């Protein structure tokens, strides 16, 4: 009985550790998370990778075929509108294999107020600081130094995003 409780306790701890909202990717030496965002962009918002320096950045790995990704867009637009003046930037990374052919029309139609980047083969294969993206949407929050401070796989709740964002902006 005691052994089975210990085994259950260990299994529960491992499961909880796997569900934490912390980054699962390890920074690649010399590249870093911001370096992995030097990608081409599409859509109505111009993108300059250097403009991310010193900002809190929310990176949303996104696909047009992913319903939770599309459902999260209004929340991301509201966060950008509300917190942009505080030094915050949302950046979407489109994972669609068709690239600009589907992402550019989507970004224009949705009137995104943040940049939409095109994932390259390195990112899709997990050979960047973000590692393998196992589920969409995936959200990573980077602090002002470009370090990952939180990450979610699956749809993020506005409350969780707001709480983590406010903490990162306050630093």
UniProtKB/TrEMBL annotation:
<dbReference type="InterPro" id="IPR036249">
    <property type="entry name" value="Thioredoxin-like_sf"/>
</dbReference>
<dbReference type="InterPro" id="IPR013766">
    <property type="entry name" value="Thioredoxin_domain"/>
</dbReference>
<protein>
    <submittedName>
        <fullName>Thioredoxin family protein</fullName>
    </submittedName>
</protein>
<dbReference type="InterPro" id="IPR050553">
    <property type="entry name" value="Thioredoxin_ResA/DsbE_sf"/>
</dbReference>
<keyword id="KW-0732">Signal</keyword>
<dbReference type="InterPro" id="IPR013740">
    <property type="entry name" value="Redoxin"/>
</dbReference>
<feature type="signal peptide">
    <location>
        <begin position="1"/>
        <end position="25"/>
    </location>
</feature>
<dbReference type="GO" id="GO:0016491">
    <property type="term" value="F:oxidoreductase activity"/>
</dbReference>
<feature type="domain" description="Thioredoxin">
    <location>
        <begin position="16"/>
        <end position="171"/>
    </location>
</feature>
<dbReference type="Pfam" id="PF08534">
    <property type="entry name" value="Redoxin"/>
</dbReference>
């Amino acid at each position: 009985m005691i052994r089975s409780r210990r085994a259950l306790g260990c299994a529960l701890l491992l499961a909880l550790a796997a569900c934490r909202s912390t980054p699962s990717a390890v920074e690649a030496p010399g590249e870093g998370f911001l370096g992995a965002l030097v990608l081409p962009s599409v859509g109505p918002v111009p993108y300059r990778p250097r403009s991310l320096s010193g900002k809190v950045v929310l990176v949303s790995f996104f696909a047009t075929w992913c319903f939770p990704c599309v459902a999260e867009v209004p929340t991301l637009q509201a966060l950008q509108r509300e917190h942009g003046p505080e030094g915050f930037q949302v950046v979407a990374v489109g994972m669609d294999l068709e690239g600009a052919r589907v992402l550019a029309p989507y970004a224009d139609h949705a009137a995104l107020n943040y940049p939409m980047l095109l994932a390259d083969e390195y990112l899709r294969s997990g050979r960047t600081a973000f590692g393998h993206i196992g589920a969409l949407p995936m959200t990573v929050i980077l602090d002002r130094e470009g370090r990952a401070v939180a990450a979610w796989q699956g749809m993020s709740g506005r409350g969780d995003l707001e709480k983590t964002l406010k903490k990162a902006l306050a630093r």
